[in-house]
Amino acid sequence: MFKGFLKIFLTIAVFSSPYFSFQAKSSSLVTDNPKEIIDQVWQIIYRDFLDYSEKFNVNDWIELRKEILSNKYLDNDDAYIVIKDMLTKLDDPYTRFLDPKEFNEMRIDTTGELMGVGIQISLDEATNQIVVVSPIEGTPAFFAGIKPKDIIVSIDGKLIKGFTIDNTVKLIRGKKGTKVELGIIREDEFIKVSLIRDRIEINVVDSRINKTDLGVKIGYLRLKQFNAKSPKEMSLSIEKLEKQKPFGYVLDLRSNPGGLLEASIEIARQWINKGIIVSTKTKDGITDIRKAKSRALTNRPVVVLINESSASASEILSGAIKENNRGVLVGKKTFGKGLVQSVRSLSDGSGLTVTVAKYLTPSGKDINKNGIEPDFKSDLLLRDKDNFKNSDLGTVKDSQYVAAENILLKKYSAESNKNSYNPKKANIRNALKK
Q: Which residue is catalytic, options 229, 337, 342, 358?
């Protein structure tokens, strides 16, 4: 997040988990037997769990199985309680159990679309109120006139004082065509707004051409998350900007929490022509090395913006660009989340995310807890924090963007001087180009 002014916000249309980045595997069993569900989880952990904290004891885990399977369980809800308690013993916040409803929502989330109303919300840390960041253009909330800074105080007549963002999202989401009523406060006036839920498709890439004072074109791309649609959106955006022939690009990964591993690899291949992108190391050693495939969409200079909330897949992409000398990083050290979670479906429709490997940068550096260091450190300095909006990112109001742009301008100046006419050297070829 952008500390001090931009709070983490969540789009009602989509919730992207910051850390799930492996493909799901389905169980071949079909059962609602509570003990079998418990044992499925136990077996997955026993077989695949990467003990990053080095606190996992296999013998204790075997004894635990004997203990939990000797008990009786009335239904799946009893099993879920046991499973969650069992997983706490791993001391791994990323290995967790999801009941059928939670698991279904997570699978939908990674597709980049959901049923909702299309608003972004944040939790105001000072007032503990749910505040609208902005409606998404073309969605029910946009057409209904929902405005930034509207305070949501009720949903379908139910007061939400003290609610978290997640709790609020659950009430607003729903099936396409169903109605939800939001009670909002706007400039001290209470208003009720009725909305019809619809399918919301989120554009994860914002892109445009910025022109500097010198007239130099800079391509700006902001990637918000890595879902199934991200590679396609990124490739279309690059191809569109390439037609306008910018000198270089600023790729903004700030506050991008990550997402799908495959999405990060595919996007890296759009920027990097040759070299290792990432490798993964399981408890049995390095098992997978992913490389570029000589199909980069541009070879123009690129500067990547990162911050403390750039995590997981963002760290894979930024690390690959840095260590392959494809570009430079500007901003703050990244989050440091370099563990791979495999998403497994269980026989009753529930699921498990289990840490199975860790990411390594092309040079073999461990990302987890270490993060990716920028080449040029830069703070986000704001003169007017209250009036800074998401739309100001990638503009002259954004000091980190300005720092990135200046790096490109220095390179542009250096290349221009190199290619300019020098009478002392009788540089006739370049003189004729003029």
A: 337
